Amino acid sequence: MKKLAALTLALTLALSATGCAASGSSEETAAQATAAAAEETQGTQDAAESTVLKVAASPSPHAEILEQVKDVLAAEGIDLQITEYNDYIVPNTAVEDELEDVNYFQHQPYLDNFNEENGTHLVSVAQIHYEPMGVFAGKTASLDALAEGAIVAVPNDATNEARALQLLEANGLISLDSNAGLNATPNDITDNPLKLEFLEMEAAQLPNAIEDVDIAVINGNYAIDAGYSVAKDALAVETADSDAAQTYANVIVVKEGNEENPAVQALVEALKSDEIRDFINETYDGAVLPID
After folding, report:
1. What is the CATH superfamily name and number for domain 49-131+248-290?
2. What's the predicted TM-score (pTM) here?
3. Could you give the CA distance from residue 229 to residue 233 in angstroms, rounded to a whole number?
4. 107-150 pLDDT tens trace
5. Are 101 and 53 in contact (CB under 8 A)?
């Protein structure tokens, strides 16, 4: 009987110990599951709290500059999503149609003209940088070597064409009607000593046509894309202290009513920082200049 009692007691103690171990393991597993669920919930909340800001931009320099502020905005809970466009139309219609929140590719005169012609409701919220327009050599190596009847390629959109013609006027190649202003076209040329012929084409295509014309007047961003250095390769360039520097500053654009959007204002602040100013000055060799 004593042996039987001892055996019974041993079994009881063993079962009790096993029960405690199982209970402890269960509690530990439950605690781990709770912690994992809490972590997942927090991750979901963080994702939900993150603000997505969609920006339409030209590849260079706009998208490159925007890439420099992604981490800064991410730290503020803003997920900056950049889509690159190679034309001057879709970035505006995308913002108007609310497919994009912001665009960064154009200057104010172009924006004003686009709104007028298309009935869009787009507004600028800040000037960020200026891209000097340059005259680049094609078949003719210098402005002094231009022959009578030389072919000059210029952008075909209203504001950039006027700007190109003003640059040619500043270099003594033509004279323009003083009333033409930002709407000047070749029809407003009052004096053309060399009887230059003008080939009007989409701004993005100008670098591709350079070998077929004598000279081309190219926007800074498309010159960069084509591998040109405005500072080293241009035959003539808009100066940093010219009226063009302010008139044609590239702007951050939103649909009317979104100007005070906190994410948009955070983007502007990041782009106006000293860090971005230094990046622009160090990267683009004078082809892009920050605006104060």
Report:
1. Periplasmic binding protein-like II (3.40.190.10)
2. 0.69
3. 5
4. 999 999 999 999 999 999 999 999 889 999 999 999 999 999 99
5. yes
